[in-house]
Amino acid sequence: MTEPEYSARGRWKGRLTRRALPREDALMNSLTADERSRLAAIWQHRAAMERRVADSFEQIEAALLRRHAGASLVALAHRAIDDEYRHAELSRLVASRFAGYELPTPPRLTLEVPEHRGATPELRDSLFIVGQCVLNETTAGAFLEVCLSQARGPLAVAALRELLSDEIDHGRIGWAYLASLDERTRAGLSTWLLPMAFLNLREWRRESPDDPDHSPALAWHGAPAASVIHGALVNALESLIVPGLVELGMATTALENWLLEGAPTDRAPTELMTEPVWRG
Questions:
Q1: Entry pTM
Q2: Distance between CA atoms of 78 and 72, rounded to whole angstroms?
């Protein structure tokens, strides 16, 4: 039995979820053994990724403290660490239900903090906060929304709702921090938007590759087809992230040009980037 890392000081006072997960899921009974195995693997991998995000939010909290961010933002980042511990355990629990037996805690993934070569330490902190919260967490919200929109199984629906309710707050950390910066600092961040968006989307696409054997049953339990996921990711950039950046006076022309090209991630958009931000 795994030992959960979330605490009584967290969002739900030591409980894993706001509402208890359903004990029964009749739709799960119609799954083939292969589909159950694949869903178990998908949710177990999500558990590992959620645990890595907890490590990321430890870095976010430290960066916010160094940048003397408001106490409310620091508190949200601190709570986000606990949220991600819960997300990891929730995903492991869902994976175990599909597997039909208790799965162990997945191996811990290594967090690779972006170097942002050429940036000052102060700018590097801001880039990490914006990259993780404005880009990655907003995108994560869009990913969960599309998963939820296609889910039919009671267990997957309940779990996805719990995950999504937290991700919205996590994205707000980055947006609120970005809005608190002065115009000059935001202008310095603008140059980095395209490379950060490119790398973020490339990683999301790598984590959701095309699966020629995908079946509707997988989508009913929280795992839509790759094409559906990829469409939601680009739509989040176009309809949520870029408009928000524009509202804050950020320069988004290069980012918008890349999106107009279809947001390709098979090659670096070097023709739209200015050194020293991009190093290939």
A1: 0.92
A2: 10
